[in-house]
Each structure stands twice: as C-alpha cells, then as structure tokens.
Amino acid sequence: MQASQRIADQRAVQRTRSETQPLTEREVEILALMGKGLSVKGVAQTLGISPGTVTWHAKNSYIKLGACSREVALRKARAQKIIEGIVVCEVCACAMASRSWVSVQALAQA
C-alpha cells in the first residue's frame, strides 16, 4: 500500500472517530455564543480566553458535527438541539438565530 493511501485511510478513521464523539462543554458554550452572533474575538473576550483557543474549539466542533463552515455547524447544532435558537424564516425558509428573526419580522410589518 502506498504511503499516500495509508495517510488517507488514517485520516478517514480519525474523522469518523471525531464525528462520533460528543461535543465538550466548552465546544457547546462557544457554539452557543457564536449562535448569538458573537465573533471569534467577542467569544474570546466573553470567556476570557484567546481567539486562537476559540478557533481551536470551533474547528473541533465543526469536525464532530460534520460541518464545513460556521453556518453549517450552527444549523446542525440547532437541529440536534445542542444549542437553542432555531427559527425558520418565512421569507426564504432558512434557519436563523432568534435575533435575526426579530429584525425580519419587524421589516415584514413595516
């Protein structure tokens, strides 16, 4: 077996293991704050940790959720009821945080 194939196989096994592991409390906490609209820097300031640490935990949660981006991770976390705040927009049927939903409702009534 070629070295590149072995590496690919090892990564696939690692990815599968990661996706079956539950999120840690810190990963959930960070996703919840991101779901409220905080930036990496904002989450770091709120929790008193470095932005690099926030990014590390966020990336780990993306892997565990099988997500390719922050938006997808938040959508999956809300759908799995890991974090709160899923609301379906009546305009475009996308999943939105409650904060955004209020502004959409206000615009619709105006």
UniProtKB/TrEMBL annotation:
What GO molecular function annotations does the UniProt record carry, in alphabetical order?
DNA binding
Query: What single Pfam family name could you report for this chain, choosing any that match?
Result: GerE
For whether the record's keyword set contains Metal-binding, the answer is: no
Q: Which InterPro entries match?
A: Sig_transdc_resp-reg_C-effctor (IPR016032), Tscrpt_reg_LuxR_C (IPR000792), WH-like_DNA-bd_sf (IPR036388)
Please give the superkingdom of this protein's source.
Answer: Bacteria
What CDD domains would the database entry show? LuxR_C_like (cd06170)
Q: What are its GO biological-process terms?
A: regulation of DNA-templated transcription
Q: Keywords, A to Z?
A: DNA-binding, Transcription, Transcription regulation
Protein biosynthesis among keywords: no
- Every copy of the HTH luxR-type domain together lies at 16-81
Task: Please give the name of this protein.
Answer: HTH luxR-type domain-containing protein
